[in-house]
Fold this protein.
Amino acid sequence: MPISEFDIIARYFTPASVGRDDVLVGVGDDGAVLQVPAGSALVVSTDTLVRDVHFSDDYSPEDIGYKALAVNLSDLAAMAAQPAWASLALTLPRADEGWIADFARGFFDVAEAHGVALVGGDLTRGPLTITVGVYGFAPTGLSLRRSGARPGDEIFVTGTLGDAALCLAGLPSPHRAYLETRLRRPTPRVAEGLSVRGLASGGIDISDGLAADLGHLLTQSGCGATVYLDRLPLSPALRALDDPDRRRALALAGGDDYELCFTVPPQQRPVLESRWRGAPITCIGRIESSPGLRWISADGSAYHPPREGYRHF
């Protein structure tokens, strides 16, 4: 007898849920009942991953489960929110228990690492699609937003840029294992986001590429910026590319980095540097009052990216 959706939920998604005292009613009822801490605002984000758009058939189900939650937590990190809960809507073409078990293992590896409880969702049949909602807390008034950058602020990014895009490009590389990890198992910069709470003025996660996502931040903030290309943090894998134009294009517009980009008033930089304990950060430029995003090469000339970043439509 084929396994039912209720058996799948009970077997693979209920016992593994992270326990939290603020989950009054979780998986198994018509809805979750959750307790938001006093003095906190609830921060909510949702992302959908679709087969052949966000992942391909050569991804393991464990990698898909891992990435499905990790990329959502990246959004909470960008808003300086502490993750708490998640919901999962999983659409499957068939009830393959081996696939489901591996997917759940990857999903809960991330959930357990960040103290996230799965509190509900949905399970149905159809083309492979995963929709995850994440819920976190930030002290009222201290969530980080795209609209907060101001002229004079310095622009920082975490980690390195362009690695996932280099992996997708399929170019031969001695760093292939590293690149596969960067693409399939991105690290949500949760601790880094929390460490800039109260210091950063604006923030965004880099999912569609630095050019596109920094552009969104500037639009929301009503500002412009200058970014210096020789300051962009690049991994040894990307630096090994002989073509400098290809390097720049991947770093600026490749997407799937899931690093953070945030702005900090210059007077707060010493505090930031003394507090920082996460992934390496790099100051790449400055927010300006003049509209537009200006890219400056090492020789002082202007650079114009061939494209801004990933677009669904």
The two ends are 42 Å apart (CA to CA). Residues 149 and 224 are 10 Å apart (CA to CA). Residues 61-78 form the longest helix (18 residues). The domain at 146-303 is CATH 3.90.650.10 (Phosphoribosyl-aminoimidazole Synthetase; Chain A, domain 2).
